[in-house]
Design brief:
binds ligand 8Y4; TIM Barrel
């Protein structure tokens, strides 16, 4: 697929997307130079470890996280995108639901918009993606990050998520986004119980019917913690297991924190599967 003139070749190897959080949870002195340098170092490390995409996010999408203003998110994300696009030759996605942030990040060198609201938040987002010929990740979520974990219920979770994604992809195309720039994602952990997340992974190959590149984000998520009964710092192996499984059932891109371990797991699975 082609995103803002840069090619992401699918089907030959699994792409590992490294997660780069630029959400300072400590007090900042206002001088963001050191924050940018630190983010750049982390991203360069992930690229050296084999990440071929970097996902930059300035607002936590975890349940109960406090919202961030447009100016604050712009200040966090755009300098990092600019520095990274000058430093490394990988695809950059920006994890945002704000069209202003997406617009400025794309101008600063990003290629893909990872909008966890699947273009259902601000109506201006689809126009930004279409006009700037960016790629877009359409992720399924039930509810909002605030409400999504309040006893989510489905009939057949796979059928419901799959048809929801099909509808959102059709909407995106109707709003001028090229069909070949759309990536779909079942949204592991977003308004789903452990049982739902496991069911989605067990039947992941059914998402191939959508005929779109498939992204899966399981990294360190609580369903792994629930299965293994381990805290978030001890979920690398559980994550790697889900990465191998996802690849063998149709994932094209996996979104992870622990790049080194998961690139090795992905390369080995590619050798067996592809
Ligand atoms: C520990 C650390 C435990 C982080 C859980 C988490 C996805 C995503 C997220 C995903 C796409 C997260 C932004 C949730 N997950 N984007 N974003 N797909 N496309 N939680 O699955 O990492 S944030």
């Amino acid at each position: 697929m082609n995103c803002r003139g840069k090619t992401l070749t699918l089907g030959i190897q699994t792409h590992v997307m490294g997660i780069l959080n630029v959400t300072p949870d400590s007090f900042s002195d206002g001088g963001r130079y050191l924050d940018v340098q630190q983010a750049l170092m982390h991203a360069e490390m992930m690229v050296a470890e084999g990440a071929t995409l970097i996902d930059i996010g300035g607002e936590s999408s975890r349940p109960g996280a406090s919202p961030v203003s447009i100016d604050e998110e712009l200040e966090r994300v755009v300098p990092v995108v600019r520095a990274l696009s000058n430093a490394v030759d990988v695809l950059i996605s920006v994890d945002t639901s704000k069209p202003e942030v997406a617009h400025h990040a794309l101008e600063a060198g990003a290629h893909i918009v990872n909008d966890i609201t699947a273009l259902c938040g601000d109506p201006a987002m689809a126009r930004v993606v279409a006009e700037m010929e960016a790629g877009v990740v359409l992720m399924h979520m039930r509810g909002t990050p605030r409400t999504m974990q309040k006893a989510p219920q489905y009939g057949d979770v796979v059928n419901e998520v799959c048809s929801w994604l099909k509808e959102k992809a059709q909407n995106a195309e109707a709003r001028g986004i090229a069909a070949e720039r759309i990536i779909v994602d079942p949204g592991i952990g977003f308004g789903k119980t452990t049982k739902h997340n496991l069911e989605i992974l067990k039947r992941l190959s059914e998402f191939r019917e959508l005929d779109k590149p498939l992204l899966v984000g399981t990294s360190r998520k609580s369903f792994i913690g629930n299965v293994l009964e381990v805290p978030v710092t001890e979920r690398v192996e559980g994550t790697a297991a889900t990465v191998c499984w996802a690849i063998a059932h149709g994932a094209d891109i996996v979104r992870v924190h622990d790049v080194k371990a998961n690139v090795r797991a992905a390369q080995m699975t590619d050798a067996l599967y592809r």
